[in-house]
Structure formats: structure tokens, C-alpha cells
Amino acid sequence: MGGHLSTLEENTMLFEEMRLTCTDFTEDVVEKLKAKMPLALQKAKGLDFIPYTVRDGAWQPGPCDGICWWTNGFWPGEMWEMYRLTGEESYRQEAERAENMLDAAFVEYDSLHHDVGFMWLISSGADFRMTGNDQSRKRTVLAANLLAGRFNPLGFIRAWNGDCVGWAIIDCMMNLNLLYWASDHTGDPRFRKIAMAHADTAMRHFVREDGSCNHIVIFDPETLDVKEIPAGQGYAAGSSWSRGQSWALYGFALSFLHTSKQEYLDTAKKVAQYFISQVKDDWIPRCDFRQPAGDDLKDACAGAVAACGLLELSKITEGKDAQAFFDAALSILKALDAHCTDWSNDYPAILTRCTGSYHGNDHNIAMTYADFFLIEAVLKLRGDTFLFW
User: Fold this and answer.
1) CA-CA distance, 369 to 366, in Å (whole number)?
2) pLDDT at residue 6 above 90?
3) N or C: which end of the chain has fewer CB within 10 A?
4) How many Cα atoms sit within 13 Å of 111 on the Cβ side?
5) What is the pLDDT of residue 1?
């Protein structure tokens, strides 16, 4: 057929060239994962909860909501990642055990909210796409319907429950992927249209001109007028919570992958450039990029999420942009590996300098979802093209 290579083919070739430049680093981390994760798995066996963090060398559950705790999909997702990395059945079996445990959350229901994408797309959704398990398909479609049911027709997916009627948060950019999957799987465009309506609202009301982001926007649920923009999990109103930045960075990149809408790619690039400008000194994100000078509170999880987003951006952008995004992702991952990990054989988690919220008491802790994104980034560097999202 001849002719020039398509832009997609050229981008794919460039990404392959870039990732092959860091094979030694990638394989070093892979070997550490293979040595470390059997311990993580062993310490989870027989627990009646899904691991979230670590205390005194043992797994601990989330602090509230029981089986409905929003991160409970990341542990089975992590197990599916290790199954892809090693092919070992023990990881698949643990992923399936945790997925079955999550069924109880559908019965609880009242504690479920916007994070059902985090809970089921990377657990049952990954199971179905890898194995064809029909029960997993049903779980994932049910979760998508629950998320779609939270849509306010003015253009946003409601966050949380109780009196949070007009609340929306930047984290939900990652949950939209459950809706994109549902449209692709069922052929029903409603899921995709809901996701895009929320993403469009997030572009207008969450992402600032400089690429920084709000965490929470409270709308009038009858008019979409903005009532308040509180600090959320960041330092203060108008500041820049780094994990919120990473949710936006990766979330908009994924929305572009699912829809090909150019504005989503442009937004992801703008957020990415801001993120890079804030971490380039040591490549480990502060909890909030606008926290007081001299405050050393970090969030390794924000770095792991952003690295995944930057690697995806390096696949779908061209030339200098692609190289800059790739180099930033690799710099973050190397910094996390060097300064924020515990690779010992007596501690079940990997990333340790994680922060739940600036004003909370969950500082310098481990979180399973941080490890999920670290392993996801390593899989990308290895050339695994399976997209959990």
C-alpha cells in the first residue's frame, strides 16, 4: 500500500523507542515486584475485609463504609495486574475472591456513590475483559447503571450522598471510564453521553487557565450556578491538591482515548504541563502544590497516578510533547522508587509517602491504590497494551 505512516502508527513507534531506553529500570522494578507481592498476597489471605492501608506490618481496611469503601476495587485490580505480569494463578484467585466480596456492596447500596468506577471497572471489568466471565460482566454493567443514575441532566455526576446534592468532584473524571466501557459494550450511547457531559462541565468549572484544578465545585442542582468552590482535600480554597491534578491529567487523557474529542486532549496536556512545572525539582508531588513554603508533606500516590497519565499522553501526542511527557513520567517513577518505596519482605505495601488529605491525619501512609497505579505504570513501560480504564 505504501505511503506515509499514520500519525497513530508514528506515535506508537515513538513510544516503543522511548520505553526501550529504560528497560533496565523497568525490569529492575519488575523483579522487585515479583519478590515483594507474594508477601502482600499472603498477608491478605483469610481476611474478611479488602486491604487498604498498613499498620504494624499488617493490612488494614478502609476507615469507613465497610465493603463500600471507595478503594476496594484497587486490591483485586492490583492482583489482576500481577497476574498479567507473572501469569501466576494465585493472583488471579485472590482477584476473584475480592471481586466476590464486593457483591455485598451492591446489597449495602446506601454507602455507594460516584466511585463505583474505581470499585468495579478495574475488578469485575478487568475480569470480564480478560477471561470472559459473564458474572463479572453483569457486575460491571450494574455498576455503570448505578453511576449513570447519579447524573444531573444539567451536566454533572453527583458526588457523595446525604446533603451533597449539587456537589461534583474532579476525581470523577476517572470513574467516567466505566460509562465509556458500558456504551462500548452495550451499544447504548447514553452512558457515553453522560460521561462526556460531565467531562465538558469539568473542563469549564474545574480546570483553571493555568492548568491547575479545583477539587470540589458545588452547583445549584436546579440551575448549575456555582455556589461554592471549597478546599476539599487540598490546603485551601483556590489551592491545587496534587492528586486532584493527577485525576484530571489521567482522566482527560482517557476521555480523549474513549471519544477522540480534541478538547479533552488539549485539557489533559494543559494539566500535565502544570503538573510537571510543579514537580520538576525533585519529581515527588507535594500534597498540595500551593501549600505553605517549607511544608514537606508529599503524596506519592499523586505521582503514580500522574505517571500513568503522562505515559498515555506520550502515546497519543507527537514529537517534543511526547518526549517531554515520557521523560516526566520516568523521572517521577524513578523518584518514587528511590525515595517513597518499601521493598522489604516484612511490609506488605510498596509506596509509603502517601497522603489522603492535607488537613486529615492520613499522612505518610500506604494506600493500595497508590500501588495499583505504580504497577500499572510499570506494565505500560513493559509494553502491555491492556488498558484497565
Assistant:
1) 9
2) no
3) N
4) 16
5) 41
The region that residue 187 occupies, defined by phi over 0 for left and psi between -120 and 50 for alpha, beta otherwise, is left
Q: Give CA–CA dist 114/120, Å, rounded.
A: 12
Helix axes 124-131, 74-86, angle to 10 degrees: 30
Task: Give how far Cα 119 sits from Cα of 62, 140, 188, Å.
Answer: 13, 9, 22
342 is catalytic: no
Q: Is 294 exposed, middle or buried (0-12, 13-18, 19+ CB in 10 A)?
A: exposed
Q: Looking at 127, 171, 299, 371, which residue is catalytic?
A: 171
140, amino acid identity: T
β-pair partners for 181: none
Terminal alpha carbon distance of the chain: 34
Residue with cell 458545588: 218
Contacts of 7 (CB under 8 A, 6+ apart): 318
Distance of CA 145 to the CA centre of its chain: 20
Tens digit of each residue's pLDDT (9 = 90 or more) over 148-181: 999 999 999 999 999 999 999 999 999 999 999 9
* Whether residue 115 lies in the annotated active site: yes
Cα-based angle 177, 158, 214 (whole degrees, multiple of 5): 80
Tens of pLDDT, residues 247-276: 999 999 999 999 999 999 999 999 999 999
**Cα–Cα distance between 288 and 263 in angstroms, integer?**
26
Active-site entry in 65, 115, 337, 371? 115
CB 80 within 8 A of CB 137: no
pLDDT in tens, 302-323: 999 999 999 999 999 999 999 9
Whole-angstrom Cα distance, residue 10 to residue 321?
Answer: 14
CA dist 298 and 282 (Å) reads 11
Residue 51 in contact with residue 60, Cβ under 8 Å? yes
